[in-house]
Amino acid sequence: MSAAQTLSAYREENQDDRALMERVARHRDREAFQCLFLQFGPRIKALMIRSGSDSDMAEDLAQDVMLTLWRKAELYAPDRGTVSAWIFTIARNVRIDRLRRQSSRPYEDIADLDLESPDAGGEETTELNQRDRLVGQALAELPPDQRRVVEMSFVQDMPQAEIASALDLPLGTVKSRMRLAYAKLRERLEIVK
Amino acid sequence: MKIVHHPDSATLVSYAAGNLDEGFATLVAAHIASCEKCQAALREIERVGGALLDTVDATPMSPTALERTLSRLDSETADEHRAPRTNGEKRPDLPAPLARLLKGGLDDIAWKTVAPGVSKHPLPVSRAARSRLTLLKIAPGTKVPDHGHGGMELTLVLKGSYCDAFGRFAPGDLADLDEHVEHQPIVDSPEPCVCVVATEAPTRFKNVFGRILQPIVGI
Description:
Chain A is mainly α. Chain A has 9 helices and no strands. In chain A, helix 6 (125-141) packs antiparallel against helix 9. The longest helix of chain A is centred in the first third of the chain and has 25 residues, at 3-27. Chain B has a single domain (1-219), classed as Jelly Rolls (Sandwich). Chain B is built from 6 helices and 9 strands.
């Protein structure tokens, strides 16, 4: 598949995801839930394994994440990001609670506050899709050393200091790669603002 | 609240990815609670997590996984389980992530004086946390002695203000310092400056003797 085809598939997938989420949120639609489960369950499981979980635990955690999706479907706000990004945040919180044995409450506290902020909304679907696509594009365009650091952080759940020692780099270099990756993302997204 | 000082973008990336230790994550969340700019930035960074989740190589789930999860949905539905809309505590002087950690308000704290003009009060973190959260109250005009840091250090101002080489820090401002930084803050508000500091936990000695020694040498 060419890069362009991957991107257009990515875009359609996202439109589908939003529609499926809406069916779960509004109608408690189990068929829509099944589609989301089949699509995301194995990826969440993979994410948990890459974060240091064993296979059984990862399977459990993936099921918990999907159950949380079912419970909290109403709280998903399409204009705040992709379904994937929302599911990532649920998985992240489960990972903090169950793998790190720390508390994800600070994240939950501000997810609630976020909902009340009036600035959400107003974006057209076409704009949303464009933004979704641009994030994938920005990631694909990152120099490999920056992409590596971003992946180690998001996928492998490694703190900056751990990344630094794994790559045998000064902490400052890890931080500056993260800053550069973020700047690239901003630059990409600015275009549609 | 006019917020001038924000977390380093690398700190925001680690926060969004979920790998800041609890104390640091709590302070970043407390800052974001009152900072619209960082709320928007966080949403954008979280999209990266979504895009990476989309591209990760899937690991097949067990053949019964879907069935088992669906059967759990039934009990969910029977329980009429609904996500609470909001459970963050609302207090005018404290962002939700901190309000939860304090029983009363800032005026009800049993401060412990640690130096002239400086008192502190610890905030709870999970047992597995490797960071510490401490409330500090510093009297007007107090100069905190020049100091470096043993690692990452975040400071969030709640009341009053202070100045150092990086500028003036007022409520909502977050100072994001690393181990190479030395600073000498001076409280410049007419009232005491109350702030929360997240620091890395002191390193532990690896052997038993070390553990016994630790409280005595105070490392």
